Amino acid sequence: MITVYTKKSLTLKEFNQHPFLQSLKEQRSAIIAELNRDDSHDWTLDDVTVKCLNVLFIGQTGTGKSTLINRITGGEYMLTDDVRCCTKEMGSVDFKLSSKCSLCFCDMPGIGENSIADAQYYEWYRRMFDMSDCVVYLLRAEKRDYALDLEEFQRLREINNKKLILGLGCVDKLPPLNRSQPFRLSSEQKEVLKQKIDDIRKLFKVNKIFPFSATENYKIDKLTEKICEVLLNNLGISWNEKIIEGKICRDGFLSLGNLFKLKVL
Q1: What is the pLDDT of residues 150-201, one digit of tens each?
Q2: I need a labelling partner for 191 at 20 to 30 A (CA). Which of 52, 157, 183, 211 fits?
Q3: Model confidence over 49-92: pLDDT tens digits?
């Protein structure tokens, strides 16, 4: 049994108003139907069995998984720290699609601290990977050594490549640092990022990488759009990019929820 602690469970009213979820609104009924049809989505949250559509965030410690979830979900639900690792247990932010169906953003402890902890976390990763509908593997842009990430990413890709997304976070930390407000990459940083993405594509043998900065709210919309696409595709629900066209909310990230037609009960 795996225990995931619910950091925040949001009501239908909160869900309905939440900016991130606006682009999934039209497909809410289809998503709930698929969740109810498949027993693999059964999950226990706070001692209650529900159907969960799980988005899993994994990677080395310090890659900003908790910060990204906070940015996407629009609240300070996950504990974050700029200096030390905070996540030592599995936690989630849950949005209720219906009384028994939830969309869950799962925050996993980071690997790379020590071999004893890693052995436990690897086991959690494998088991949670099987129970998730979309898995976002995060790298830090300013790092040079991705050997540990590559090994784990390849293991997961062999299980199911269709649910994996590779995110490149903390692009604001690329040299030379700049303090522009609102944040935008300098021309020098863009060149560094372009080379970094080319190197990672070759190393990880992937076609698409999603660079972003959670702290600076930079290109979160592109990453959330991809999460939305993977969720629907893995449920067998047709994906139409035109649905989300022009639905970027005022603070810059994609509103996942127009795909859901939520009503306050």
Answers
A1: 999 999 999 999 999 999 999 999 999 988 888 999 999 999 999 999 999 9
A2: 157
A3: 777 888 999 999 889 898 998 888 877 888 765 444 444 578 88
* Number of independent structural domains in the chain: 1
264 lies in some domain: no
Give the integer Cα–Cα distance in Å for 197 and 158: 22
The pLDDT tens digits for 135-156 are 999 999 999 999 999 999 999 9
CATH number, residue 202: 3.40.50.300
Residue range(s) defining the domain that contains residue 23: 5-257
Q: Is residue 213 part of a domain?
A: yes
Round the average pLDDT of the chain to a whole number and report it.
Answer: 77
Flag whether 17 is in a domain: yes
Total-model pTM: 0.79
